[in-house]
Amino acid sequence: MAFTTIDDPSAHFQVATWTGDGNATKAITNDGNSDLQPDWVWLKNRTDTENHTLADTSRGVTKRVVSNGDGAEDTNGIASVQSDGFTAQLSYNGNTDTKNYVAFQWKANGGTTTENDASETSVGSLDSVYQANTTAGFSIVLYTGSGNAATIAHGLGVKPELVIVKNRSKSGGEGWTVYHGANTSAPETDGIHLNLTNATSDSTDHWNDQAPTTTTFGISGDDRSGGGYTYVGYVFNSVQGYSKFGSYTGNGAQDGTFVYTGFKPAWIMIKRTDAAKNWYIADSKRSPSNVNKAHLVANSNAAEDTSGDGTDSYFDILSNGFKLRQDFSHLNADGGTFVYMAFAEHPFVSSEGVPCTAR
């Protein structure tokens, strides 16, 4: 029995780390089992207080949106992507001498997009442009708002479990909105915000109370479809043995909750949804052994924190998931509700029945 269709997750997702050398540009080469030419690059200076840089090949990689803010897209992205990595720029916070960096990279469709004319295809009510990796369940979607509620084609062919939308052209006041399929019993009525600490809120202003379908996701006529504004969406569905978008309940103990993913995670982002808490990002590259302490905060420009909150730590990365190892309210509050997004370093069991080893 095949336990995954993706035996080598590095063909679709990788984490790269480097130290800046102060040159105008620096080519970053991935070290995974497979070459990866990324279509979405999420870059952060780990050493300093500095904004996150999110660039993609649909918008053009020199263009950036910032996960910790609500401003418009700017031109402070990366220089280029190549067959196995990308090129960072000194002037755009990617290669300052002696500073440490990390980049999270996802593959979509090599920059090749599909234009969806809603009037011709009868898919969605607004035109969109998407590039989809249906094998790994990831799509980058561009559209222009009409001022009215609408549906947008995503190209995945299955129902998305995670949709992250950002207004690209409004100068401020319109941040990131996140649909997470495990957020509540009716996630289409709720939203959380990547650039904020806010708990889940219930409003038709998020997704117009429309659940995603195998072809589209819904948007409201307000923050997700302002008339004439341009938007980007990052859309995911889980793939067994490669990615999972789930939830868990904390137990408030240092012997914390175990979360089963079905793979050894390479990258995890967690958000408490019943209280105002940060979005925590961890990965196996920056913390190669347990316990995993190094984290970044998606909604903050803060440098990397490796303290583990004093005497306690965050979690262990295991061959089939992760286990919380602290009792703090941001990741493991007793009775607290949390959502997570995780991508694999290795499936728990490969398509040939080869098990993953713990680290």
Give the overall shape. Answer: globular
User: Helix and strand string, N-terminal first?
Assistant: EEEEEEEEHEEEEEEEHEEEEEEEEEHE
- Residue ranges: pLDDT <50 for 5 or more in a row? none
Give the tally of β-strands.
Answer: 25
Percentage of residues in helical conformation: under 10%
As for the number of domains, it is 3
Going by helix content, strand content and strand pairing, the class is: mainly beta
The fraction of residues assigned to DSSP E strands is 35-45%
Q: What does the average pLDDT come to?
A: 91
Question: Radius of gyration from the CA trace?
Answer: 19 Å
Draw up the topology in text.
Elements: E1 13-19, E2 25-29, E3 40-45, E4 53-56, E5 80-82, E6 85-89, E7 100-106, E8 114-116, H1 118-121, E9 128-133, E10 138-144, E11 150-153, E12 162-167, E13 176-180, E14 190-191, E15 201-202, H2 204-207, E16 216-219, E17 230-236, E18 243-249, E19 258-260, E20 263-272, E21 279-283, E22 296-297, E23 315-318, E24 321-324, H3 329-332, E25 337-347
Antiparallel strand pairs: 1-7, 2-6, 3-4, 3-7, 5-6, 8-9, 9-10, 10-17, 11-16, 12-13, 12-17, 14-15, 18-25, 19-24, 20-21, 20-25, 21-22, 23-24
Describe the overall structure.
This protein folds into three domains: 98 residues, no CATH class; 123 residues, no CATH class; 101 residues, no CATH class. The chain is 3% helix and 36% strand. It has three helices and 25 strands. The strands form seven sheets. The protein has a six-stranded antiparallel β-sheet. Strands 18-25-20-21-22 form a five-stranded antiparallel β-sheet. The longest helix has 4 residues. It is globular and about 50 Å long.
